[in-house]
Amino acid sequence: MSTNEAPSDYFSQFASTASSLFSFMRVPVLASSGVAAVLSGVLYFKQNELIYPRNVPADSRSHVFRPQKFGYHSYEELLIPTPDGEALGAFLLHPSNKSRARDITILMFHGNAGNIGHRVPIAMRLQEGLDCNVLMLEYRGYGLSTGTPDEHGLLIDAQTGLDYIRQRPELRDTKLVVYGQSLGGAVAIQLAAKNHGEGHIAGLILENTFTAMRKLIPRYIASADRHVDAESNISSAFPPAKYLARLCHQVWPSESTLPTVKNIPILFLSGLQDEIVPPSHMRQLFKVCRAERKVWKTLPHGSHNDTILEPEYFDTIVDFVNEEVMAKP
Q1: For 246-261, what is each residue's pLDDT tens digit?
Q2: Which residue blocks in the chain are alpha helix, DSSP H?
Q3: Helix 120-130 to helix 7-18 angle, to the nearest 10 degrees?
Q4: Catalytic site residues?
Q5: Residue 19 CB neighbour total at 10 angstroms
Q6: What pTM does this model have?
Q7: How would you classify the pairing of strands 294-299 and 266-271?
Q8: β-strands 133-137, 175-181: how paired?
Q9: What is the pLDDT of residues 187-198, one digit of tens each?
Q10: How many other CB atoms sit within 10 Å of the CB of residue 292?
Q11: By the 8 A CB rule, do 302 and 258 touch?
């Protein structure tokens, strides 16, 4: 496979892989109050396995596609240490055409299944569209990284990735854009909130992410009922759901955190056919966002795992970076 191929050529391979990544997210339960006690125990004690299914697909902890599988050779494979003793796998993609390289670095956070290898075609498309560097950071407990994932740990990982970029001489003075999909969007929001006053982050891109994990849990529980609409009142379909959500200790409070990020331009990419995270979550995040510059883009046919295949997806990202990140002081 050549890096000169059209995006549709290598994304067809990615799409076939991605189609299996999110089927686990619909929790298979009976929608009746009789199972509430059982669900309470499962949700409280096993929620990390539900929220961070790092073994999906089955070989995700042992097999990570390298960029050369997709014909890309200008990259480094890294093992980045965290302050608390874990080691994070990562790929750092460099511009394939050095003469066109721009002072842009994208820090990329993926969703809650699979590993960075499944997202290499996305990183390639970002790199080719912007002639930038792309750091694909693997969360702890995912892919070849050590450790066990949880909210606190993933926030350490995100900060580790940012610090790594700022410590590398050839990257530290580039414009840093943080890009997060689904769970990765929640990670990106928390990282931006923590660092927005430092001036390290020049742009934030959020795709199909959620307002808060506790607001998403009832959606998973009720999804066993195929007649429940994504925008409907989930608690009416399964009354205990709103109470079970309170047991979720993985909070990811994006809705309350995002308004603190005011001086970073933010792009919102919302797939309107998202069957996992209702599009209303993205609309609410855009509503509460207080950033001085924010851009809203809907992808009409995009579902949770194939919004990247929408025709305007990458053009929108390129335009955002050029117009809102690079054109601003």
Answers
A1: 778 899 999 999 999 9
A2: 7-18, 36-51, 120-130, 151-167, 183-195, 213-222, 234-237, 241-244, 254-257, 279-288, 313-320
A3: 150
A4: 182, 274, 304
A5: 12
A6: 0.86
A7: parallel
A8: unpaired
A9: 999 999 999 888
A10: 10
A11: no
